Amino acid sequence: MKVAGLITEYNPFHKGHLYHIEQTKKITGADTVIAVMSGNFVQRGAPAIMPKHLRARCALLSGVSAVIELPVYYAVSSAEYFALGAVSLLDKLGCVDSICFGSECGDIQVLQEIADILEREPEDYKASLKKALKTGLSFPLARQHALKQYAAILSAPNNILGIEYLKALKRLDSPIKAYTIRRIGSGYHDTAVNYNFSSASAIRANIDSPSIIERQIPKDCLAIIQDAYRQRFPIQSNDFSLLLKARLLSETADSLACYADVNPELANRILNCCNDFLNLEQFCGLLKTKELTYSRISRALFHILLGITRQNMEIYCWAGHIFYARILGFHEADAALFGLIKRQSQIPVITRLSQIKHLNFPGDAMINTDIYAADLYESIVTERFQTPFINERQQSVIKLPS
Question: Model-level pTM?
Answer without folding.
Answer: 0.94
